Amino acid sequence: MIRKQITDKYSVSEQITLVDVNTLAKSGVTLIICNRPDNEEDGQLAFADIASRAKELNIGAVHIPFAGGKMQAADAELFKQTLVGAHNTHAYCRTGNRSSLIWQAAYPEQAETPKIETKKPEYDVVIVGAGTAGISTAASLLKRKPNLQICLIDPAESHFYQPGWTLVGGGVFKAGETRRNMGDVIPNKTTWLKKAVKTFVPNDNKVILENDQEITYRFLVVAAGIKLDWEAIEGLSETLGRNGVTSNYRYDLAPYTWELSKNLKSGKAIFTQPPMPIKCAGAPQKAMYLSCDHWFKQDSLKNIDVSFYNAGGVIFGVSEYVPALESYIEKYQIDTNFSHNLVKVDGPNKRAYFASKDENDQPIIIETKFDMLHVCPPQTAPDFIRNSPLVDDAGWVDVDKETLQHTSFDNIWSLGDVSNTPNAKTMAAVRKQAPVVAQNISDVLDNHKIRAIYDGYGSCPLTVEVGKIVLAEFAYGGVVMPTFPKWLNDGSKATTLAWILKKDILPPFYWHGMLKGHEWFVKPIMRKE
């Protein structure tokens, strides 16, 4: 429990345990308030259990629950009445944020009292995450403000060009071509802390590292990426890289995908896609199409039963690109299965298990054998993000979808896979988002109103065969947004130009352009006043 003292008589924290109740009692707490609905997430300790332990220790316990972002005036009023006469109160919710906000709503005159800064922040900007989003934002900021004191926090030793892993799995790239040492891509004039983050204290402008070191900032950018939840599928972790089970979503496994494709001459190949959101929603299909293209050209496809199991209900979310994809599904004779979610893998016996529903809409488990299984794992925000005060009810960093500024903390921004913007989680999205964040922070530094907005642009180069790609480009709401005129690249068809873009142009563009702060073709859109 990380306890945040709001006043000398009121503190807040994330979800507490029964042991924490004992600790609070020893510290003199006389009232516990829970601002969290029961059953908000699996494994959550019920308020009744907290109240029972509190009663044993002569502590009062009151339940004033509300969902994140849905506090009502009546909640604040009840909260204020509850605190009348209370000597020492502790409130909690999932992260502590709601318990802070309800106090501010109940006592606005105290909440608006300005803090007196006693110590200058260590950094102008702290960026959590040194992936594509973090490094691109740092580079773009330095293009605008070369003297900014910027700190990048990330424990990783390597930086990866992850869009290249599809081509590694298709035998086009070598894995090593997609990796650089992290120290070689960190922008000059920035500080790199090779540490992991434990949590955030946004009311004090602090990032807490795993070793409990506190880093202070004027502005925070959260670009922590996404968590690949391999453990969510029973038996998967134990068999990855063996028994015909692979995934292009991991650097060390993408070469195994190509090895399996080369060696499979007959049998059953299965490709899976979990529920959204996932990064690069086209990647599970890309792996399938490239394998099928190899088998087709080797004249072995007729001996291989290829199946696509998708937890979703459609082949692709933007309808304009579906006909082109369906033509390749027909060409490769792929059996598509929608509303089928992989839940278990038995590697030694080569069996996959999918959760689905029967004709009566009742849950069922479908078992099928395989000789090759390509898995896209379920994905969530990293644990330290999900358990922080920065997130929405789904666990993603809560930002304005246009300005990318946090909805509760004005000096915090977020971009990339970890934010809750309703766009496709792709590198192309980050390419547009980084200049927006950099411009808006620069404007705040100059005491200007923020005006740069992100339009939801994302791109998915759907690699349907070696040499051809269906280049899907779209913005918020699935609005098609092509970069090139139709005569140059028709996005409704597989084209050679899109393949050249993916294979030959984008990798050097990434390493020598995007990560260096060059904003070619992505000048921020400015909101009209």
Would you give an account of this structure?
With 529 residues, the protein is of the alpha/beta class. The protein has 3 domains: 4-111, Alpha-Beta Complex (Protein-Tyrosine Phosphatase, Chain A); 123-226 and 381-526, FAD/NAD(P)-binding domain, CATH 3.50.50.60; 230-379, FAD/NAD(P)-binding domain (3-Layer(bba) Sandwich), CATH 3.50.50. The protein is built from 15 helices and 28 strands. The strands form 8 sheets. Strands 6, 7, 10, 11, 12, 13 and 24 form a 7-stranded mixed β-sheet that branches. A hairpin with a 2-residue loop joins strand 1 (4-7) and strand 2 (10-13). The protein is globular. The two termini are 44 Å apart. Mean pLDDT is 92; it is low at 112-118.
Short note summarizing the structure:
With 529 residues, the protein is of the alpha/beta class.
Q: How far is it from the N-terminal to the C-terminal residue, by CA?
A: 44 Å
What is the beta-strand fraction?
A: 15-25%
CATH fold call of the largest domain: FAD/NAD(P)-binding domain
Q: Please tally the helical runs, counting DSSP H or I stretches of 4 or more residues.
A: 15
Number of strands: 28
CATH architecture verdict of the largest domain: 3-Layer(bba) Sandwich
Shape: globular
